[in-house]
Specification:
Elements (H helix, E strand, L loop, with lengths): L1 H11 L14 H5 L10 H12 L28 E5 L5 E5 H14 L14 E8 L4 H7 L6 E5 L13 E7 L3 E6 L9 E6 H8 L6 E8 L1 H8 L33 H9 L19 H16 L13 H9 L15 H8 L26 H9 L18 H12 L7
Antiparallel strand pairs: 1-2, 3-8, 4-5, 4-8, 5-6, 6-7
Length: 423
């Protein structure tokens, strides 16, 4: 029933009366395009009018001081030129061409920057589809694709978009005959335009005809749209469960596939400012975590949770401030072997101290057959497993195994976001 109601709300937002012009626009035609042709929600109509006039939140510098105007029928987003987008949290992301333009439009409309097409770390969005071979009215209707959905195509056969050719666009409306969308670099020479195509033409132009697939479709949640439609301000959910603000940046790592079991954890842990990649492009998910790195993660997590703004600037070894901070909280850490790989048991023991009881739901602990009664880490493990943070692998915890960065990311993400925990 809820799905039917949500679909009704989404389709009610799509006005099907516009006789949209063909793909190319002349200057006169641009003046005839109004936001109310696509949405009847006043706040979104106002934001879309800004986009159509060129006042999209797209910037020419990393400080986001030089706004790039990109009105319809101008060549404002040529291929290869780097632009910047600032999310509602203040994080700055860079990209080029249609990709960064579509994200700038989405951010202007909804306040989110869904760069990864997954479903972690947004204010009010969700991923509704991925890795699709074609687009159709029936398919979009079944998925509940609505106004403002961000669609990305890719040449990667697994649906991943990193390092692939493709196109990004914002869906404005569709009916049984046509789909209408807003795009940057629509002609490969930087043109910003609204395009209307039949479904066959759309598939030929963007998908099968180019050897591509739909990598993902992202759109606002039904709750967010309902709130806007009701005239009230959208109330964003607490972004990562217990952290109300972001402290880091979303990684765009070439070694983290969207389909990887740890991908969501990496995204969330990086966004809250607790983890970083080994470099701008590499996360190194299978590398071991050292004792010093584990202590640093625990310290940063504590500081982020209590929002104390602690300065971890080091005067000596990089990890010394993190050790000192943990000790201020009464957490006993071993300072003798900072570069030794940390065991899963020791990391869980550390992280168990990084959240108070109020932030850890009291469920039933997991009984791991490889955890002896009275083990020094047993209480910590019971605490986190009861909260849905630790599940183990194939029923075992493997306490003496070395912790990987992928595993660390998952633990951090589940601790920070109660919505990611095992129920």
């Amino acid at each position: 029933m809820k799905r039917r109601i949500a679909h009704y709300i989404l389709t009610a937002l799509l006005t099907l009366t516009l006789a949209a012009p063909a793909v190319g626009f002349n200057a006169a035609a641009v003046d005839n395009i109004k936001s109310t042709d696509y949405t009847n929600i006043p706040v979104l109509a106002e934001r879309l009018d800004r986009v159509l006039s060129g006042d999209v939140e797209l910037y020419g510098d990393i400080h986001c001081s030089s706004n790039v105007r990109a009105p319809l029928n101008t060549r404002a987003v040529p291929l290869g030129k780097t632009y910047y987008v600032k999310s509602a949290s203040g994080n700055v992301y860079s990209g080029s061409s249609c990709y960064i333009y579509a994200n700038a439009v989405y951010a202007t409309l909804f306040g989110d920057v869904p760069f990864h097409g997954d479903d972690v770390g947004w204010l009010n969005s969700r991923r509704v589809a991925g890795n699709l071979a074609s687009a159709s009215y029936d398919g979009f209707t079944r998925l509940g694709v609505g106004f403002g959905a961000l669609l990305r195509t890719t040449s990667n056969r697994d649906g991943g978009y990193n390092g692939s050719s493709g196109h990004s666009m914002v869906i404005l409306k569709y009916d049984r005959s046509t789909v209408t969308y807003l795009e940057g670099n629509g002609d490969g020479k930087g043109l910003v335009r609204v395009a209307e195509k039949s479904w066959d033409s759309f598939n030929n132009t963007h998908l099968a005809g180019k050897g591509r697939r739909i990598s993902f479709i992202v759109q606002p949640t039904e709750e967010y749209m309902e709130t806007l439609a009701g005239g009230g301000k959208a109330v964003a959910r607490d972004l990562v469960g217990y952290f109300s603000t972001l402290g880091g940046r979303r990684g765009n790592f070439i070694d983290v596939s969207l389909s990887a079991w740890y991908a969501g954890g990496v995204t969330a842990a990086c966004e809250i400012g607790v983890l970083n990649g080994r470099s701008e492009s590499r996360f190194a998910p299978m590398e071991s975590v050292t004792v010093a790195e584990g202590v640093a993660v625990c310290a940063k997590f504590l500081s982020r949770y209590y929002a104390d703004g602690w300065d971890f600037t080091a005067s000596g070894a990089w990890y010394e401030p993190y050790y000192s901070y943990c000790r201020l909280w009464g957490i006993d850490v071993d300072f003798s072997s900072p570069n030794k790989p940390i065991k899963r048991a020791d990391f869980v023991r550390l992280m168990s101290r990084a959240l108070p009881d109020a932030a850890l739901s009291a469920g039933k602990p997991v009984a791991f057959p490889d955890v002896p009664a009275g083990a020094y880490y047993a209480d910590a493990l019971s605490r986190l497993s009861a909260a849905g943070v630790i599940l183990g692998a194939n029923g075992r915890f493997m306490p003496a195994s070395t912790l990987t960065r992928a595993e660390m990311a998952q633990i951090v993400a589940r601790m920070a976001d109660k919505n990611l925990r095992w129920k």
